């Protein structure tokens, strides 16, 4: 048997009234709101029970199943509690004792007037109906609740009434929630309201401090700008002064040029007078020297005439001497030539006699050899067959060359496509490297190793694995990239996303050493968000889009960002939205990005109060470039396809080369046979032609000699 459990009596008696004034204990030590008597009839395990608790701490002790919790349930139901808060049943009929049609619970509470008690009775039946009586008179449930509230009894407050079935719920309360519930239970009812106001004022104070710092920064910037502009003003004034001086110099320049030209003109006039005087002196000297020169010219003419006559006489004598010498040389040459011709004729006569005798002997031998030759018929049929075979082989070779040429052109095109695809893939992967380096700088020191392992072991996964998430997201606008980066928690950017449990477990084991988060998404391929609908009211306030509409990603990645970071609940606006931020929250928007600020509104779960948080906008540090991962995968597939096509075409080219080489070898063999036959025909023909030529030459020699 399980050990006995002790149930502590619920603290239903408050130490203060609803107005916050302390209660005074009576002569019997009871305070207003204390339970004086409990009466149960046909309730759960009890047929009938009357219990009178003491004015202070009460303990109910007993073994399991003895009815300790039943007594607590009876007190809660009599104080207008909902059956659901007890954690036992959803309706009151479950609290009627088995076999009975109805039952009741009656509590006697000490009233403000110490002389009497307040009786509260709740009748329940198996039809799930309740009847309320106050001091024996039937009343609505609202009157009972008013009486309970007057004593500040809070059945729904776990710090005041804690059923054993709700202990786990109590353990989940945060310290802030515990403080709020405790204030409601033991303090002034206005204390929680004042506490919330204090929190809101603290937030406003922080916002004002931030605004003051921003204004101070703006003031300092404006002062610095003003100082720089003062320097610019001084430079502008100095420039205007220099421009006026330059304008004055421009006006003086023509006078200075005139003075210089005038001085130069006067110098030239003086030089002209000097040179004119020198010219007159030279003319006088020339006139004085002119008479002797004319006499010398006449004497020179006479001498020149005499020299011409003597020179002509010498030339005539030289020509006559040359003619006589030439005649003598010609006569000597003719005599020598005549003697040589006579000697040559003698030797020629002797040689002719020898040639005639040799020609006669050669003629006889040639005639005998010509008569001994056998008749030769060339193999025309074999030559025709070989010619046809060679023609067929040439046609086959030309056809293969044409096919090979087409295949080589296709191969060159495919190689060019492969090169372009490889270049584009390399360029896009270099962007991936930049994004990985950005993640390293952000704290993911071993993200490169994790990414390399996933890329090199894709064959081990059952489904598609995405990651890191930063590489999978493609944002077109730098401004929106800053919004998205600030909105999404940092751990998501370096996470890998799987789509089934086995891949998740495999990645957890393998990437544990790299400190990389793993997220498992098991939804479909459809995006889990409502379509974007910008109403006219939103447009009027400057709202233009929603954060989930400003980036592209695979469906699994986008759904993770929606579920984990609620990007589908964050809106984007212009500067106009920044100015109208107080009106935006009225449209039900709780998150807004503008070019200058990020607004977030939250509503308290307890008091329903609305609070706002405003943050400054910072530029993106991770999104240095936009990478579309689907394009990378597509390019990789396209590169693999081009590589396979190139390899197939190269193999086909090798086969065509082998076939062409075979046909060329066969064609060369046929040509070799044909040339051998032609050589034999030419040899036989040459033999006959040589003999006939020899005979003809002999006849010609004999004829010439005779």
UniProtKB/TrEMBL annotation:
Coiled coil: 198-239, 307-369, 397-445, 632-676
Stretch list, region Disordered: 1-28
Record GO terms (molecular function): single-stranded DNA binding
Keyword match Acyltransferase: no
Keyword Coiled coil: yes
Name of the protein this chain belongs to: Structural maintenance of chromosomes protein 5
Pfam families per the UniProt record, alphabetical: SMC_N
UniProt keyword list: Coiled coil
Any one GO cellular component localisation term in the record: nucleus
Source organism of this protein record: Aegilops tauschii subsp. strangulata (Goatgrass)
Family statement: Belongs to the SMC family. SMC5 subfamily.
Domain of life: Eukaryota
Domain RecF/RecN/SMC N-terminal, chain residue ranges per copy: 35-158
GO biological process, one term: double-strand break repair via homologous recombination
């Amino acid at each position: 048997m399980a050990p006995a459990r002790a149930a502590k009596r619920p603290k239903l008696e408050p130490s203060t009234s609803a107005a916050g004034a302390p209660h005074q204990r009576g002569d019997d030590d009871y305070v207003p709101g204390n339970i004086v008597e409990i009466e149960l009839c046909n309730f759960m395990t009890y047929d009938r029970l009357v219990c009178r608790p003491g004015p202070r701490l009460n303990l109910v002790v007993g073994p399991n199943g003895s009815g300790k919790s039943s007594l607590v349930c009876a007190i809660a139901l009599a104080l207008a509690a909902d059956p659901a808060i007890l954690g036992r049943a959803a309706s009151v009929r479950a609290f009627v004792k088995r076999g009975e049609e109805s039952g009741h619970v009656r509590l006697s509470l000490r009233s403000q007037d110490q002389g009497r008690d307040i009786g509260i009775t709740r009748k329940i039946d198996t039809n799930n109906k309740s009847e309320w009586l106050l001091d024996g008179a039937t009343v609505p449930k609202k009157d009972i609740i008013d009486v309970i509230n007057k004593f500040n009894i809070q059945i729904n407050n776990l710090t005041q009434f804690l059923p054993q079935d709700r202990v786990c719920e109590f353990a989940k309360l945060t310290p802030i929630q515990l403080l709020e519930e405790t204030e409601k239970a033991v303090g002034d009812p206005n204390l929680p309201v004042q506490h919330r106001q204090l929190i809101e004022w603290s937030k406003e104070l922080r916002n004002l401090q931030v605004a003051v710092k921003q204004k101070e920064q703006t003031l300092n910037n404006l002062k610095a700008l003003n100082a720089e502009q003062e320097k610019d003003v001084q430079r502008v004034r100095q420039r205007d002064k220099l421009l006026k001086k330059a304008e004055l110099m421009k006006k003086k320049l023509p006078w200075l040029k005139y003075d210089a030209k005038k001085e130069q003109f006067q110098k030239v006039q003086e030089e002209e007078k000097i040179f004119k005087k020198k010219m007159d002196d030279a003319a006088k000297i020339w006139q004085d020297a002119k008479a002797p020169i004319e006499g010398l010219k006449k004497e020179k003419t006479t001498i020149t005439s005499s020299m011409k006559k003597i020179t002509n006489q010498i030339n005539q004598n030289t020509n006559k001497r040359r003619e006589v010498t030439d005649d003598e040389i010609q006569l000597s040459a003719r005599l020598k030539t005549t003697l040589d011709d006579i000697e040559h004729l003698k030797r020629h006569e002797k040689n002719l006699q020898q040639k005639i005798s040799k020609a006669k002997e050669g003629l006889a031998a040639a005639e005998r050899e010509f008569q001994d030759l056998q008749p030769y018929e060339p193999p025309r049929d074999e030559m025709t067959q070989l010619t046809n075979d060679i023609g067929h082989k040439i046609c086959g070779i030309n056809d293969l060359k044409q096919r090979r040429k087409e295949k080589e052109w296709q191969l060159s095109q495919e190689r060019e496509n492969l090169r372009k695809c490889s270049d584009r893939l390399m360029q896009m992967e270099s962007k991936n490297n930049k994004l990985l380096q950005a993640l390293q700088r952000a704290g993911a020191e071993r993200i490169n190793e994790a990414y390399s392992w996933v890329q090199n072991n894709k064959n081990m996964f059952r489904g598609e694995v995405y990651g890191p998430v930063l590489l999978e997201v493609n944002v077109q606008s730098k401004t929106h990239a800053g919004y998205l980066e600030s909105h999404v928690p940092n751990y998501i950017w370096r996470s890998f996303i799987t789509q089934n449990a086995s891949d998740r477990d495999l990645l957890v084991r393998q990437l544990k050493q790299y400190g990389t988060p793993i997220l498992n998404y098991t939804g479909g391929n459809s995006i889990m968000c409502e379509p974007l609908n910008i109403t006219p009211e939103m447009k009027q306030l400057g709202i233009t889009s929603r954060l989930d509409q400003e980036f592209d990603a695979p469906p699994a990645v986008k759904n993770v960002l929606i579920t984990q970071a609620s990007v589908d609940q964050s809106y984007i606006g212009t500067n106009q939205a920044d100015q109208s931020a107080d009106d935006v929250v009225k449209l039900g928007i709780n998150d807004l990005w503008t070019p200058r600020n990020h607004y977030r509104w939250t509503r308290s779960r307890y008091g329903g109060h609305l609070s706002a948080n405003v943050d400054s906008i910072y530029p993106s540090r991770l999104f240095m470039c936009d990478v579309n991962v689907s394009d990378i995968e597509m390019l990789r597939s396209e590169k693999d396809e081009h590589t396979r096509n190139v390899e197939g075409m190269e193999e086909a080219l090798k086969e065509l080369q082998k076939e062409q080489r075979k046909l060329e070898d066969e064609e060369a063999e046929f040509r070799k046979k044909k040339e051998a036959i032609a050589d034999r025909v030419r040899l036989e023909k040459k033999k006959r032609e040589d003999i006939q030529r020899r005979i003809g030459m002999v006849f010609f020699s004999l004829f010439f000699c005779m």
